[in-house]
Design goal:
This protein is mainly alpha-helical. The strands form two sheets. The chain has a five-stranded parallel β-sheet with strand order 2-3-4-1-5, with helices on both faces. Helix 34 packs antiparallel against helix 35 and helix 44 packs across helix 46. The longest helix is centred in the middle third of the chain and has 18 residues. The protein is flat, with a radius of gyration of 35 Å.
Length: 934
């Protein structure tokens, strides 16, 4: 397939709207008679030439102005004034100075400046110079001199394209970066003609390999057949089509000395056996350079001097890196095959010393191989084992696959390379390796890797089906991966909230293949979900107890999950901390987000909100780094729950929105449930029980279409509280009774120490006022045994609200004061503000939280009047304000009349306008500021 039949030339620039806007500003000033200059810089392939051409075309089409456009010819770089000769030859009309005269006699920088001003005198002139770094030095100097002096009233603008701004220091510069993901995807759609026929894995690999370089992306696409683009044929390894970009990068190296070029080739080759981005070992380069005959002084200066560099190389500690990844590839691409093989052989000999691990030397030997080599491929595969890091194993296995002569072996080795890349946390490379396997590989290894990738970054239902299929294919010959596939399928079903699918996957696990703790975990979870909690809990406790001697991260994670199901949250935190330590010590990197997520969730259950937030944030960064979108979604939900306690409300909303946005497309019911619960709890903290009840009702009511089966009960206390505080207890009495009975049954089965106190609190909320106080006292007695500031403070807050509503204000101050102190102690700021407001309403002076909006017109009102005024300004009715502040509607009406009199307003509309004026409270502005701070 030729490029012309596959690639379609882009009709527009992608991802350059910001750059085009800057250039359009320059053209607008030019049209008004003011000149200027701008230097566009970028490595090859990022669209510098396209931007220059677009700028020239826009000026001709929109402004009708003259354009002088010239591109450098590298072959003329040693010819003085050849650049300016080419520029003047492109000028329209007759010139005061003939271009040939400039080529023969030259021109002074001042003479060029005068010439450009003369050309722009009649009509504003745009000058565009591409690849100006390749001009001869005299032309560059004169152009830079002139461009620096083109300002207001000069009627000439110069746009210069160059690799860097070194030769044009002092001029405004705009450095082009790689295209972002959306722009790269849009360009790929245009290049392939349509998106329907390109395989998602192939699409991902093309975008990853191009890394935002549009010329490289076009080159890669242009060398693939329709079958390869559609995933019907395996992709070649490595992908062809990068030659043009690599040649452009290599052109900058031609003028370097022979010693420097040799050192660059050694550095490029020395990175072949290293993980991506690790650079080369400076000590190895020193030995290799010495063996290659390079001068010791040159090596010391480049490799070990404090600022040792030759421009292309940058040193960081004991590692040496190329300034751009494509530059390293360009060095290898430009070297003659024989010379490149000799360098790899040299490095292989240095790496194969006594006591050295065999894998690095074998990788260098593989790079030196002139063609397929079955024996060397087998050696590489045999050496790609522990304790070598998963990333190194993946690279070695990919080399082994490339050297393989047998198609089946090649596919198996690419699959193994994909699995090792996945374990290393490099999902992009894992998918790239799978793209080389082909659409219908033998065995179940490839479906297994695809399913595990989808489990952490894809629809959960797809992951479950892929892993069940893989388990069937792997069962006859690979017991370990069969177990992993079935546990993965169960994990996908759990995330989906499908208890039946979870049981189906767990029941397929062959008991004989599982070790004792794994078998106990499987049987215990199945028993709990099948309605036999006593038997299930006994088995899960055995699994938890056996973890005391465990060191394997997977076993410790199962122990932590067992503890969470049992309700033993402290044990879950201990198991989670040990699992995290095991992953950090022994890997794999791919498990890090999951370990952090489980530990953070356990800490939330234990009331350790600050710790949970810290671990969840770390997990979120790890999930993004390893390409695990589903883990990121769950961690956003955990962070939303933490923010519903600590605040601010904007952080809770932002994390919840992110969790729900990820949960919907991938079917992550548990993450959606937790995120919704978090927002509802934030509503309760802010005094919006009606909204909280509306959010939680569909999730906690019994029957189909409810929340996640494993977390639904956790949200019941919040729902009951929201229903009562919003005044809906009477209308929802039947549903509340059913929910309370179900929660009581669950309380009897769990060992979570907070749950009995929550049950007593719910009963107190639903009890008649004269009986409720005793219920709260019972709840507080449970809290005394369980510990935990936050839940105890919530009970004290509700108890104080009840006493105040019963006009027992003196008695109410005690629990309200205790609630305020406890909320402050656990950094629950929004809840503390609510408790403080209740305490002020009970007649006790409390330092108000700082108001960032300033005193405003409410400064002369009492705290209770300020709260009522703000609620009314937000649109709440008197009844809604009464429910929110736990007072009677008559009290709200009384205070509101006093507010109107004090502020000189006559209606709710005037009050809202007053608070939205400069100098007022500006509720909308405060919301916008909070979002900006977040």
């Amino acid at each position: 397939m030729t490029p012309s039949t596959t690639v379609h030339s882009p009709l527009r620039l992608y991802g350059r709207s910001g750059e085009l806007a800057i250039l359009e500003t320059l053209l607008g000033r030019l049209r008004a008679g003011d000149g200027g200059a701008l230097v566009l810089t970028s490595p090859p392939g990022l669209g510098r030439t396209a931007l220059l051409r677009q700028t020239a075309a826009d000026y001709r089409a929109r402004h009708g102005g003259p354009v002088v456009y010239a591109a450098a010819a590298r072959t003329e770089q040693r010819l003085p004034y050849s650049g300016l000769h080419a520029l003047l030859c492109s000028a329209p009309g007759s010139l005061p100075l003939a271009p040939d005269t400039v080529l023969r006699s030259g021109i002074t920088p001042g003479g060029l400046l005068g010439l450009l001003r003369e050309l722009g005198a009649e009509q504003p002139l745009l000058v565009c110079v591409d690849d100006a770094h390749a001009w001869d030095p005299d032309s560059r100097a004169a152009l830079g001199f002139a461009a620096r002096r083109l300002g207001e009233g000069s009627r000439v603008a110069v746009v210069i394209g160059a690799a860097d701004e070194t030769a044009f220091a002092g001029l405004p510069a705009l450095r082009l970066g790689p295209l972002d993901d959306d722009a790269g995807a849009a360009l790929l759609d245009r290049l392939t003609g349509c998106t329907a026929d390109i395989d998602p894995v192939v699409r991902s690999e093309l975008l990853r390999e191009a890394a935002g370089n549009p010329r490289l992306l076009a080159g890669l696409v242009g060398r693939l057949t329709p079958g390869q683009l559609a995933g019907r044929t395996a992709l070649p390894y490595p992908l062809p089509g990068a030659e043009s970009v690599l040649d452009a990068h290599a052109e900058h190296l031609d003028g370097l000395s022979p010693d420097t070029r040799t050192l660059l080739l050694l550095a490029a080759a020395a990175e072949e056996h290293e993980p991506d981005g690790a650079g080369a070992d400076a000590a190895l380069l020193l030995r290799a350079g010495t063996r290659a005959g390079l001068a010791a002084a040159h090596l010391d200066r480049v490799l070990f001097a404090p600022a040792g560099t030759v421009g292309a190389l940058q040193r960081a500690g004991s590692r040496v890196h190329f300034s751009h990844p494509l530059l390293r590839r360009a060095v290898l691409h430009r070297a003659l095959p024989g010379r490149r093989r000799a360098v790899h052989e040299l490095l292989a000999g240095l790496l194969a010393g006594p006591g050295s691990p065999p894998l690095p030397a074998l990788v260098q030997r593989a790079c030196a191989a002139p063609g397929p080599d079955a024996a060397l491929a087998a050696q590489l595969e045999a050496a790609a084992t522990a304790p070598r890091p998963h990333g190194e194993r993946s690279a070695a296995l990919a080399r082994a696959a490339a050297l393989s002569t047998d198609d089946t072996l090649r596919a198996a080795r690419f699959t193994a390379a994909a699995e090792q890349a996945r374990l290393a946390g490099d999902t992009g490379r894992a998918r790239a390796m799978l793209a080389r396997v082909g659409p219908h590989p033998a065995g179940g290894a490839a479906p297994y890797v695809r399913g595990m990738l989808a489990l952490h970054d894809g629809p959960a239902a797809d992951a479950r089906e892929a892993l069940l299929t893989a388990a069937e294919l792997l069962a006859p010959h690979d017991a370990r991966r069969t177990l992993d596939a079935l546990f993965g399928a169960a994990e996908a079903a759990w995330a989906m909230g499908d208890a039946i699918a979870y049981l189906d996957a767990m029941n397929r696990i062959p008991v004989a293949a599982a070790d004792r703790p794994m078998a106990q975990y499987r049987a215990g979870m199945c028993a709990v979900l099948a309605g036999h909690p006593d038997r299930g809990h006994a088995l899960l406790r055995c699994c938890l107890d056996s973890a005391d001697r465990a060191e394997d991260a997977g076993e410790l994670l199962r122990a932590g999950a067992s503890a969470l199901v049992l309700g033993e949250v402290d044990a879950a935190c201990r198991a989670g901390a040990r699992a995290l330590a095991a992953v950090r010590t022994r890997g794999p990197e791919a498990l890090l987000p999951h370990a952090l997520e489980q530990l953070a969730y356990a800490e939330l259950r234990a009331g350790q909100h600050a710790r949970a937030r810290a671990h969840a944030l770390e997990g979120l960064h790890a999930a993004r780094r390893t390409g695990q979108q589903n883990s990121a979604t769950h961690l956003h939900a955990v962070l939303a729950l933490a923010a519903s306690v600590e605040g601010p409300a904007e952080a809770c909303a932002a994390h919840a929105d992110a969790a729900l946005a990820g949960a919907g497309p991938h079917g992550l019911a548990q993450a959606a449930m937790l995120a919704t619960w978090a927002v509802a709890r934030a509503d309760l903290a802010a005094g919006r029980p009606g909204e909280a009840a509306a959010r939680l009702g569909p999730l906690v009511r019994p029957g189909p279409g409810t929340g996640h089966f494993a977390t639904r009960m956790l949200a019941v206390p919040c729902w009951i509280e929201a229903m009562v505080l919003s005044g809906r207890a009477e209308e929802g009495a039947a549903e509340l009774s059913v929910a309370l009975d179900e929660f009581a049954l669950w309380t009897a089965r769990t060992t979570d120490p907070q749950v009995p106190a929550q049950l007593a609190r719910c009963r107190a909320l639903l009890a008649p006022p004269e009986e409720a106080a005793a219920g709260y006292e019972q709840a507080l007695a449970h809290h005394d045994r369980a510990g935990g500031d936050f839940e105890r403070a919530r009970t004290q807050l509700l108890h104080g609200q009840l006493l105040r509503r019963l006009r027992r204000t003196r008695e109410a101050r005690g629990p309200l004061r205790d609630a305020l102190v406890a909320f402050e102690r656990c950094s629950a700021r929004v809840w503390a503000e609510r408790a403080g407001g209740e305490l002020r309403a009970a007649g006790e002076a409390v330092d108000a939280a700082p108001d960032r909006s300033g005193p405003g017109p409410l400064a002369g009102l009492t705290p209770q009047q300020q709260r009522i005024a703000r609620c009314v300004a937000e649109g709440a009715t008197n009844r809604e304000v009464a429910v929110r502040l736990s007072v009677s509607p008559r009290t709200v009406d009384h205070h509101l009349r006093n507010v109107f009199a004090a502020l000189g307003v006559r209606s709710r509309t005037e009050l809202a306008r007053l608070l939205d004026r400069p100098g007022g409270t500006r509720l909308q502005d405060r919301d916008e500021k909070n979002r900006a701070d977040l």
